Amino acid sequence: MERENIGISTADIHGDPIDIEFINVTKLYDDVVALDNTNLKIPRGFFHSLLGPSGCGKTTSLRLIAGFEQPTSGDVQHKGVSMIGMPAYKRPVNMVFQHYAPFPHLNVEENISYGPRQRSPRLPKQEIKKQVGEMLELVRLPGFQKRRTWQLSGGQLQRIVLARALINRPAVLLLDEPLAALDRKLRREMQMELQSLQREVGITFVLVTHDQEEALSMSDTISIMRDGHIVQTGTPTELYDTPVDRYVADFVGESNFFPGPVSAADSTRATIQTKTGMLLTAPYPEGGKHLTIGQPGTIAVRPEMVLIWPPDSAKPKDVDFSVKGRITNRIYLGHQAEFRVVTDSLGEILARIPKTAESVSRSLSPGDAVLLGWQWDLGLAMPDA
Question: In angstroms, rounded to a whole number, what is the distance separating the alpha carbons of residues 306 and 321?
Fold first, then answer.
């Protein structure tokens, strides 16, 4: 039976017009399936990310939108109009690549104005100069017209390449891991720059990345991809709080996973028996699959949902159960403290305690015996796959 691969965000449910749509798109490279019957809707004016590991199909998706590739079957549409067979230069999109590829023999003004200078009929020189000035203002590099590309820092060069793409007034800007070559500090700065720029110009941005932090920090909506399929599409909050399966929960953020066969299940929640015989229960995530008795399942619990306290302290009132453990590592992260605790009943558990709730945990150190636990409803029950 053919698997339908659906990636519809909650955004289009709320009535936002759709800018880019994949309808049953499959892309084959000989015997390799790069995309498999994929459906995707990207609302107009959204910052949307395609997130996944290498080989999952995210760059192929971007190339199909750009027109560098054609689907083996299915349709790729912009504003409800098919782009199948339309050459890349006629599509209302521009693409920024991971390797910026500025023209080294041209200065900044000549690089940015390359697109308008190729148009027919060509715009007057003064109009092109005016547009270049506007683009440099937009990317916060006024007065850089005569600089050579080799005189620019990595962040400045990235802005110039963005200006070169935006001067063509695309309806959709495609970004293929554009920040991968930057160091961590500059990458973080450019993430904020890109987000601000997208809001200012108001067009659809589609970003390809394998960096979850990058996608979560910039995007309105994200599609998580795996082996040519879209596993889940949603807002960053939806993907983090209600991942539909273990793959998404593991790929977006960190989770503690407690696998085992399902010992009880109904329409709202499931109970799993761990290998040590302990019973853990949790509700299903919204949109997640329901489990059946005997099926391999897992309970996922985010580290910040785990509470930790000394054995001589009272159990917090909002904890449904507790287990004994011993701290093996503590890392101070400024805004929070991270604890790794080994337990006999549940193995290693990761807990993160925010600075505002550190009064109990401040005195805890590696080697200390502790108790930890969480509310049942703060975990999620899902298939162990």
Answer: 11
Longest Cα–Cα distance of the chain, Å, equals 81
Q: How many helices (H) and strands (E) does the chain have?
A: 10, 21
Per-residue pLDDT of the chain (385 residues; tens, 9 = 90+): 333 454 544 444 456 899 999 999 999 999 999 999 999 999 999 999 999 999 999 999 999 999 999 999 999 999 999 999 999 989 999 988 877 678 888 999 999 998 888 877 788 889 999 999 998 988 888 999 999 988 888 888 888 888 888 888 899 999 988 777 677 777 787 788 888 888 888 999 999 998 888 899 899 999 999 999 999 999 999 999 999 999 999 999 899 999 999 999 999 999 999 999 999 999 999 988 999 999 999 999 999 999 999 988 888 888 999 999 999 999 987 778 899 999 999 999 999 988 766 666 677 889 999 999 999 999 999 998 7
Q: Is 378 exposed, middle or buried (CB count within 10 Å of its CB: 0-12, 13-18, 19+)? A: middle
Domain 5-241 matching CATH 3.40.50.300: the answer reads: yes
Q: Output the CA angle 338-342-345, nearest 5 degrees.
A: 130
CATH 2.40.50.100 domain locations along the chain: 247-385
Is the domain covering 247-385 a CATH 3.90.79.10 domain? no
The Cα–Cα gap between 85 and 101 comes to 26
Q: Looking at the chain, which residues constitute the CATH 3.40.50.300 domain(s)?
A: 5-241
Tokens representing 83?
């782009």
Query: CA nearest 290: which of 219, 380, 210, 222?
Result: 380
